[in-house]
Amino acid sequence: xxxxxxxxxxxxxxxxxxxxxxxxxxxxxxxxxxxxxxxxxxxxxxxxxxxxxxxxxxxxxxxxxxxxxxxxxxxxxxxxxxxxxxxxxxxxxxxxxxxxxxxxxxxxxxxxxxxxxxxxxxxxxxxxxxxxxxxxxxxxxxxxxxxxxxxxxxxxxxxxxxxxxxxxxxxxxxxxxxxxxxxxxxxxxxxxxxxxxxxxxxxxxxxxxxxxxxxxxxxxxxxxxxxxxxxxxxxxxxxxxxxxxxxxxxxxxxxxxxxxxxxxxxxxxxxxxxxxxxxxxxxxxxxxxxxxxxx
Length: 295
Hints:
By secondary structure, the chain is α/β, with parallel strands linked by helices. It has a single domain, classed as Rossmann fold. The protein contains eleven helices and 13 strands. A seven-stranded parallel β-sheet has the order 3-2-1-4-5-7-11, with helices on both faces. Helix 1 crosses helix 6. The two termini are about 35 Å apart. Pfam families: DUF1731, Epimerase. This is Epimerase family protein SDR39U1-like isoform X2. InterPro entries: DUF1731, Epimerase_deHydtase, NAD(P)-bd_dom_sf, SDR39U1.
């Protein structure tokens, strides 16, 4: 059984591909570069999906938050193109396949939901686009939408803040915390809807393997915390102090005003449908996750 993925060499993609291979899938990543177990995007356009492809996962995307990478119009276009163009290419390959895959899983983000200090969001909530990230997620999900008459099951996973040792936010902050220089981000009161990388990969594989799973899933842990609770838990797991706050002035200098503001805000997002479909979280609490991240 083949499993095709766009973005299989990225942070989330590496973990998903490893887990899928362990379950007996032959994993083929679609990449811009020629490499073992990869096909190029041009190959996909010319030749389509492998004949025995049972699942396609879209995980491509230029990282949104990069230190000293300001959100210029050019950068925003690159972020958008890296998600939407490649997702559309995978969708077209599915629609053109003589034997369509059983399932198409596409990632999106919790930036779909409006920042709020008090409101709880589930997959059932609808939000109108109000900033760059919310516009991006809406267009990304539209790009992944299959026709109603498609025989391929469709799942969209809105990812939270993914925590893992080898990528994402932890990779950017671990040295600061290890040196005892960690602390709250801004006020620390903003919501931090997180998920451990092993659960992120687990949800995607669960969606592939279970025919009952369809529609929108929130890829977040069932116990979101305030940002300050996360930084305290991570510092504690490392046996380091939690003293030095990261003010908005510094964030704006490093990421630019627009991206810096994103880090100062957040949403409380719950994985209601993910749990209803029966997924069991390996790391349901931030303390459990941080203990693993600190080892």
